[in-house]
Amino acid sequence: MEISGRVAVVTGAGAGIGAALTERLVAGGARVVAVDLDEAAVRAVAERAGAAAVAGDVADEAVIRAAIDAAEREFGPVELYFANAGIGGGGGLDATEAQWAAALDVNVLAHVRAAKLLVPGWVERGTGYFVTTASAAGLLTQLGSAPYAVTKHAAVGFAEWLSVTYGDQGIRVSCVCPMGVDTQLLHTGMVPEGAEADGQLAIKAVTSAGAVLSPEQVADDVLAGVAAERFLILPHPEVLEMYRHKGADYDRWIGGMRRYQAALRG
Fold first, then answer.
1. Domains (ranges, CATH) in the chain?
2. What is the pTM of this model?
3. Annotated catalytic residue 148
4. Alpha-carbon distance 235 to 99, whole Å?
5. Which N-terminal residues, if any, form the signal peptide (predicted)?
């Protein structure tokens, strides 16, 4: 898909990958609505990039609808939706019900709610593109954070289901699964209050596994994947080999992850 002239919504656009995507999309000729919980941050990104801005929690269907309505009002029907917002969640079994609920809401159900609003119209028009920012944790796992590991697996699963179900009706889907990216989520968002040890383990697991990429590098990889209409976008190509090892011998992979966890803790 060519992005020039397309209408796009990007969530989590106040910083990190979302901000970089907003800037790259506008530079490529797309008309963009940037959405983020942090109003000051998203308005600054939008002003810098030349995009429109909507502030709010994208786990809330009303905010998603407001972003879609703003895009239609300013530019026309939404053609690309980047479900990029994400949070770290909690630690292990001590993660609270509220932390689990928040992780499910932002990392999974926000995608479901957006798809419910967009896909029927896309099917009528015979075209539309849904881009999910998941994580390598959705293909592998996340040491130190049960909510993050589980919800990112669910995000990958929903993206797969969306592509299988609607791919023959003109709906394209990509699922982005990076490892370490130089964002606030990596540095502080994985350290929930009361589970600092688990959070530091999560950060160390990511930063020790491979290169930490810039948000701009990831945004470039995402848009290259969209241009190629590729389902699985891997800014860290080595994740594919890790995933193959996991599928080839699950028990051996789990044993290896236990040893990796012990080494990081040791």
1. 7-239 (3.40.50.720)
2. 0.95
3. yes
4. 28
5. none
